Amino acid sequence: MSTTARQGHLDPDRLAELEEQRDHLLASLRDLEREHDAGDLDDHDYGELKDDYTARAAEVIRAIDEHRDLLEQSRPERNRGRTALVVVSVLAVAVLAGFLLARSSGQRGSGTITGNDDSLRQRLASCQMTSFQKPAEGVDCYADILDEHPDNLEALTYQGWAFVRDDQVERGAKNLARVVEIDPDYPDARVFRAVLLARAGTAARAKGDDTTARQSYTAAAAEVDRFYRNDPPEVAVQVLRQEGLERTIFFGLLDDRVRGCWEQAAAAGGAAGSDTDSGSGSDSDSGSGSEGSAVDDAAFVAALSRCLDGVLAADPTSTDALLSKALTLLGTETPDVAAATTLADRILAVEPDNGNALLLLASAAVYRDDLDGATALLDRVDGLPRPTGAALIGSPEDLRSMIERRRSGGSSGPGGATTTTTEPRATASTVPGAPRIPNADGG
Length: 443
Prior knowledge:
The chain is mainly alpha-helical. It is built from 21 helices and no strands. It has helices at residues 3-7, 12-37, 43-69, 76-79, 93-104, 118-133, 135-148, 153-165, 169-182, 187-206, 210-228, 234-242, 245-252, 256-277, 291-314, 319-329, 337-350, 355-367, 371-382, 390-393, 396-407. The two termini are 13 Å apart.
């Protein structure tokens, strides 16, 4: 969560300044594209500058939208003890749109289907900016392009998202379905479809329709899996992670009893944080690593572990409970990797192709510096649907990168600074509904 949102206020002058920065950075991205196309900028410099501008633009956009959309949720008195996992979903859809717009501006304007002339790229860039600020006008802007280029993937995709942001969800979903028909591997459409499906799952569960909720979350997981299988740009991956989409899907697919344990633990962690921070005047949402934060995490993990013990006593084969219990063992200051590995083995005894268990074993193998064993396990994971627990265990991509660094001499061995996964600990700060919910790298 940005510093701006944590401060709990943003004066009009500061807001105007941020909006000016956003416009400048997005315009700079378009200028950068033109320089690259004209041959004035080589591929290496272009890539580095584009990544820098995109990251800076995303941070500014997030600061603006967190102030407008997340201010109430960022206040400690409103956050403590909240246990509604289902409402922790894609909270800043404007950020998602703006982030991907910045990435794709002019990059794939033709969608590899229609012409790729400068005029078309400029028109797409103009529509992107319009759509971000005024979705309804963006819909019309893209319509003009689609009249001439009906199969343009970018225009179809981002008109679809403009429809969604203009509360015309069905029309937006129809656009995205058309994109998938033309090019099943177009990653932008997969992101947006996953968002819509996860939101549908959230809505269905809120109505008590668990069957529909589970179907929606399962479909969202399939979209995320397809997204990752098409070598998406890093900035798009960061969008998924910052929006917590994979975490939302993971918790949405948990068994009701196990999900209930996570909710109870979140409440326990919130109560502990409230007691600890009482009268301190500090912001418990900051995730600053203070003593209060440690108490929150300890209370959360202890409560979750106790509840899961009860579930496993009633059903020793519950794979969701076994995985969650393993995460609690990794969520302490001294992670019990051996015990977590034993629980993963128990999951595989029930479900030999359980991707979450295989991913956890791969993570443990990296921790032990068994790089060959970890690679073999990740090869098995690659042949399965993407593990839904990657957000908390650590993604296959991050583990492979860690293995590569370790083999090239980039780590000191088990327990070292780079030996754990992106999200090695299931602490209160990584769990939707907990007292603090930062945008953790693990999704």
